[in-house]
Design brief:
Layout (H helix, E strand, L loop, with lengths): L1 H15 L14 E6 L5 E5 L4 E4 L7 E3 L3
């Protein structure tokens, strides 16, 4: 399933002419979702209570405590 999603994203990026870049998140946990509240501020969530926040468009990510 993950391979299908990756292939689909790559295909869509070529069609939309998007510029995707690999970024280092700072975690080895699997990330399941991401949302940006504006151009620079975004949150990613994943396994084992992983919550990451960026305030510079995804260039750097900081871990938040999920409690």
């Amino acid at each position: 399933m993950k391979k299908f999603i990756l292939i689909t994203l790559i295909a869509l990026s070529f069609n939309a002419k998007a510029q995707w870049l690999p970024l280092v998140s700072g975690t080895t946990n699997e990330l399941d979702g991401i949302v940006f509240t504006d151009l620079n501020t975004g949150y990613a969530v994943g396994t084992h209570g992983t919550i990451l926040k960026t305030i510079n468009g995804g260039l750097n990510w900081n871990a938040l405590v999920s409690g």
